[in-house]
Amino acid sequence: MVDGGTGLTRDVPLEPGCSALLIVDVQNYCCDRTGGAFRDLNEDQFEARYGNYFRRLESETIPNITALVGACRTAGVEVIFTVIEALTQDGRDRSLDYKITGFLVPKGSKDGRVIDALRPGDDEIIVPKSASSVFNSTNIEYVLRNLGVERLAICGVYTEQCVESAVRDACDRGFLVTLIADACATVIPDAHDNSLSAIRGYCRTVETRYLINELESIST
User: Fold this and answer.
1) Residue 5 covered by a domain
2) Which among 23, 97, 102, 194 has most CB atoms closer than 10 A?
3) How many domains does the chain have?
4) CA distance 46 to 43
5) Reported pTM
6) Is residue 134 situated within a structural domain?
7) Could you give the angle at the alpha carbon of 83 between the alpha carbons of 95 and 92, nearest 5°?
8) Average pLDDT over residues 23-32
9) Burial category of 142 from C-beta neighbours within 10 Å (exposed 0-12, middle 13-18, buried 19 and up)
């Protein structure tokens, strides 16, 4: 995508040394049936509210993220995870929005861990956050600058909430953003589609297979 006749473009590939894959909130709290977000629901309530979301997670989103992680590790592209997790047991450090909404993942809890299917490597970075935007609630920009990251691929959950916040804020901070559409998910399908449409101007939007092919071409 070229903007305004300036000759500048967001259509740039991920490259080792200046790129990272940011996986947003794919953690037990909201991506595991036993997670805190669903703990008080019986099976009928869970199916009605979250059945389709979990089927998408299991059939598409998580397999695609798993493939992306493998491709990035092979290519030498940094893999970084965010998780919703308070800095305290009682969550007193959470954002006001999270307090009002009732999002509480206590420090050190199972809910704050990345799901087993995406187990981070021993030396990969996990950034705990206590608000929707990882850029507003953590030092991730400082970390990315120290890593030399200029290009950022983003995926995860929920598309129209924490993922969209990360895309917008990364763009505003001068990162070239790639959103991997089929490696994101949210509870309401229309919200996913509407979010992709709303943030199209902030990022390059691709599918998993496209990005993997791009990474494989760099590795060969």
Assistant:
1) no
2) 23
3) 1
4) 5
5) 0.95
6) yes
7) 30
8) 98
9) exposed
Distance in angstroms (rounded) separating the CA atoms of residues 98 and 156? 19
CATH of the domain at 169: 3.40.50.850
Q: How many CB atoms are located within 10 Å of the residue 188 CB?
A: 14
In this predicted structure, the answer to whether residue 220 has a pLDDT above a threshold of 70 is no
Structure tokens given for 126: 């996990």
Cα gap 91→107, rounded to integer Å: 8
Q: Return the percentage of the chain with pLDDT > 70, whole number.
A: 97
Cβ-count burial of 203 within 10 angstroms (0-12 exposed, 13-18 middle, 19+ buried)?
A: buried
Q: How many CB atoms lie within 10 A of CB 125?
A: 17
Contact in structure between 212 and 218 (CB atoms under 8 Å)? no
pLDDT in tens, 191-204: 999 999 999 999 99
Q: Per the domain annotation, does 105 fall within a domain?
A: yes
Q: How confident is the model at residue 7 (pLDDT cuts 50, 70, 90)?
A: confident
Whether 126 maps to a domain, the answer reads: yes
Place of tokens 């509210």: 49
Q: Which residues of 74-84 are buried (b: 16+ CB within 10 A; e: fewer)?
A: ebebbbbbbbb
Amino acid (1-letter code) at residue 179: L
Range of the domain at 189: 19-219
Residue 202 corresponds to which tokens in the numbers above?
A: 């902030």
